[in-house]
Design a protein that fits this description.
CATH topology of the largest domain: Rossmann fold
Shape: elongated
Bound molecules: adenosine monophosphate
Number of strands: 19
Largest sheet: 7 strands, parallel
Oligomer: single chain
Structural class: alpha/beta
Strand content: 5-15%
Length: 570
């Protein structure tokens, strides 16, 4: 927030749309939004070059919503968005629904492979925006259910994909059914000749807006180790935690796109024993200063932030940047990773990439002039191995350090006593267990296979080189909180609280943290680790506060159910 950035208010959007954007946690428009929104509100035709991940959906959806007649009564749609796939139709419809919830937008997604009845029914009730794949749209036009004569705006989204899939004729037939006076907007990630031809036939003096892959390599790419992990959105929190566990960073900044994501992830990390806090534009200056102070003094080691809030942030000891979401442009990626690897230190930049964001990753690779290796999300077995390895290294360091010898000798007597009637190997095993627990302990299996979700459809649309999508297959189950979950007893100074609701009731770690901080007034950083079991949950809190927590939580409501709470006696 140090440097003022672009502002949604400057783009000509009305108040109720602006408040929706604030509630969604969007802090500033992406470059394509800043360029496209004013043009489209002004009624211009537009040829936009932008891939998934740039924020292109909001770039056309917000102007369409802005231009809707506030007193609309007609049942016929005033906007038609054509997309290549059913998946994208649903995604775009979801985006319209969230951006348009404040103005009661009526929409329908129309796509093949599903019964037409519901879609026809929705059209009959009346809609403002139709998001459709070309084939089914044409079909419903022919049946008389979809009428396009009131359409004011047509968007061709991912036009290159639609042409690739052979939809050109359907698109042209549909365009012919719309009024000549319409506004036409074409978005495409690439601009082959066929797109230009399509545009010259159907767009009128289009404005060109390109958030194109950068033409040349950037000269100031920081020297940091970079890697990417292909994960489904749903798996991102678990993947991020495993990656942090495997990396064991000194201090990390994790970038998310929205305030909501920042808050959710920071809470989930705190619930699993990380010293993590959120930084975004929704905090007051005072709150931000305090978070920054704690980061500088190393009281926290994970900062979860939006780009806007992290602007101007300058902390020398950061070792890792994690892109929980890819940024909306390659340039922002370079900017983000410039936060680490300062003063000759080794820096690491790790990115979680959704399968559909492959083009954005390619654009980033082009700008940095090097491929970013795709790595597997570590399996639970990998994380276990790495932790054991770290405990072993720590012991070897002591053995190899001449300065430690005197200290070791000071334990001779007690060790001799231990060995009196025990076998040395057993004593060593116990000592190793103690050291390992002190270093964070073992990890516990989770109940969910991270790979399962990926195998279902995470690989769809992956380029051949991504064929080996990250998978923990064959490595046992996937991980929950690693730092915490295997700890069999609370850490010293902490007490464990038992809560009568668990996974079966839909309870998540953030629910538990939320209720302990909300009802008992504890600070987020004092709460956790949290363990969610099938029928109950456990949460560790400072011993001194345990009774207060039990008292204030008993009979509180979590996920709509009354909870019973007691001190867990082990
Ligand atoms: P898209 O490129 O349209 O698929 O958008 C990619 C993602 O960025 C979606 O998850 C959007 O919700 C999100 N997004 C779009 N615009 C913004 C913004 N201005 N700030 C934060 N997130 C955004």
């Amino acid at each position: 927030m140090d440097t003022p950035g672009l502002d949604f208010t400057a783009l000509g959007l009305r108040g109720d749309l602006l408040s929706t954007l604030t509630s969604l946690g969007y802090e500033e428009p992406t470059p394509i939004q800043a360029a496209a929104i004013p043009l489209l509100i002004g009624g211009a035709d537009m040829l936009g070059q932008a891939a998934t991940g740039t924020g292109k959906t909001a770039a056309f959806a917000l102007p369409i919503l802005e231009r809707l007649d506030p007193d609309r009564r007609s049942g016929a749609p005033s906007a038609l968005v054509l997309v290549p796939t059913r998946e994208l139709a649903l995604q775009v419809a979801q985006a319209f629904a969230s951006y348009g919830k404040g103005i009661g937008v009526r929409l329908v997604a129309i796509y093949g492979g599903a019964p037409a009845r519901q879609q026809i029914e929705a059209l009959r009730r009346g809609v403002d925006v139709v998001i459709a794949t070309p084939g089914r749209a044409l079909d419903l036009c022919d049946r008389g259910s979809l009428k396009l004569d009131s359409v004011r705006t047509v968007v061709l989204d991912e036009a290159d994909e639609m042409l690739e899939m052979g939809f050109i004729e359907d698109i042209e037939t549909l365009l012919a059914k719309t009024p000549d006076s319409r506004q036409t907007v074409l978005f495409s990630a690439t601009m082959p000749k066929r797109i230009d031809k399509l545009a010259s036939r159907h767009l009128r003096n289009p404005e060109r807006v390109a958030i194109a892959p950068p033409a040349k390599r950037s000269d100031d790419v920081p020297r940091v180790r970079q890697a990417a992990f292909v994960v489904k959105r749903f798996d991102k929190p678990a993947a991020a935690m495993r990656i942090l566990d495997a990396e064991d960073p000194a201090a990390t900044i994790i970038f998310c796109r929205t305030r909501g994501e920042v808050d959710d992830l920071a809470q989930a990390l705190a619930a699993r024993g990380y010293q993590a806090e959120a930084l975004h534009g929704g905090l007051t200056q005072d709150q931000r200063d305090r978070v920054m102070g704690r980061l500088r003094s190393r009281a926290i080691d994970v900062l979860v932030a939006t780009d806007v809030a992290a602007r101007g942030l300058d902390v020398d000891h950061l070792s890792h940047v994690v892109n929980y979401d890819l940024p909306s442009s390659p340039e922002v990626y370079v900017h983000r990773i410039g936060r680490v690897g300062r003063a000759g230190r080794e820096g690491v930049a790790l990115s979680l990439v959704e399968p559909r964001e492959r083009r954005m990753l390619a654009a980033i690779e082009k700008l940095i002039g090097a491929p970013i290796p795709i790595e597997k999300v570590p399996s639970i077995a990998d994380v276990r191995m790495m932790r054991l390895e770290r405990s072993r290294e720590a012991i070897e360091d002591i053995l190899d350090d001449p300065d430690q010898q005197a200290r070791l000798e000071s334990f001779q007597e007690i060790v001799a006593e231990l060995l009196e009637d025990r076998d040395p190997e057993t004593v060593l095993l116990a000592a190793f267990a103690l050291a390992h627990d002190a270093a964070g302990g073992d990890v516990e299996d989770d109940d969910r296979e991270l790979s399962a979700a990926l195998d279902n459809d995470g690989k769809r649309g992956l380029p051949a080189s991504w064929g080996t999508a990250p998978s923990s297959k064959g490595h046992g189950k996937a991980g929950r909180g690693m730092r915490d979950a295997g700890v069999s007893r609370p850490a010293s100074g902490k007490a464990r609280i038992w809560v009568s609701l668990g996974r079966k009731s839909g309870v998540t770690p953030s629910d538990i943290v939320g209720v302990v901080t909300g009802e008992a007034g504890l600070k987020g950083r004092d709460v956790g680790p949290v363990r969610i079991q099938e029928f109950y949950s456990l949460v560790d809190v400072p011993e001194a506060k345990a009774r207060k927590v039990v008292k204030s939580l008993n009979h509180c409501t979590i996920r709509g159910r009354k909870a019973k709470v007691k001190l867990d006696q082990g």
